[in-house]
Amino acid sequence: MPRKPRMYLPGIPAHVVQRGNNRDACFFADEDYRYYLNALAQGCQRYDVYLHACCLMTNHVHLLMTQERPNIGISQVIQHVGRIYVAYKN
Known about the structure:
By secondary structure, this protein is α+β, with helices and mostly antiparallel strands. It contains 2 helices and 3 strands; from the N terminus they run βαββα. It has a single domain, classed as Transposase IS200-like (Alpha-Beta Plaits), CATH 3.30.70.1290.
């Protein structure tokens, strides 16, 4: 059964948690953190999302984000980062 779409309202901050597969590590070196942050910055700029705060742990990430447009934003940023970072790690 597919997951229901998440609802993010424009101008309302959202706490986003992204975990590694089976809670395994996502970051193994300092370069990994930098690459993830660069991909995140690209995604936020592309989809008009403000990143207020972030906390990168070894196996998960906490993000405080606000989208500006009604139907485009946070979900697309996370998808963008996932595509770029997974390709980098593999």
